[in-house]
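Subject: Formin 2b

B.,
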Amino acid sequence: CTSEVEKVCKVSDEDNLQPFKEKMEDFITQAKTELETLDIELGSTHKLFLELTVFFSVKPKAGEREISPNTLFSIWHEFASDFKEQWKKENKAILKERLKAAEECFRQAKEKASYSVKPKHASGIKAKLGMKI
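Prediction pasted inline below.
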């Protein structure tokens, strides 16, 4: 990019040269600063990635010096998918268990709340009133 700016500066008139050159120098300076920052962040990220592979005890494939992000994240994806499936199964089992407990509690409450009707006695009030009608 710097060489392109120099080419344009050589060919341009003095009237147009100054604003262009000033803006491009600012742009190039800012771009170099951003590039240095991103390079530092990339190095830091690479270091963290290597620490992550050591933490999870992931070894590189045969013939590779370092483990590739693709390899690590494919293993991670499989683990996360399996974990998610197991999580769903466990939640279903817990919900079934809670439902059974609630149904049992409801059944017991219903049995307690039910009352029994005694048969009519010939000498009872209901029997006597029934005879009069």
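Residues 61-115 form one domain.

T.
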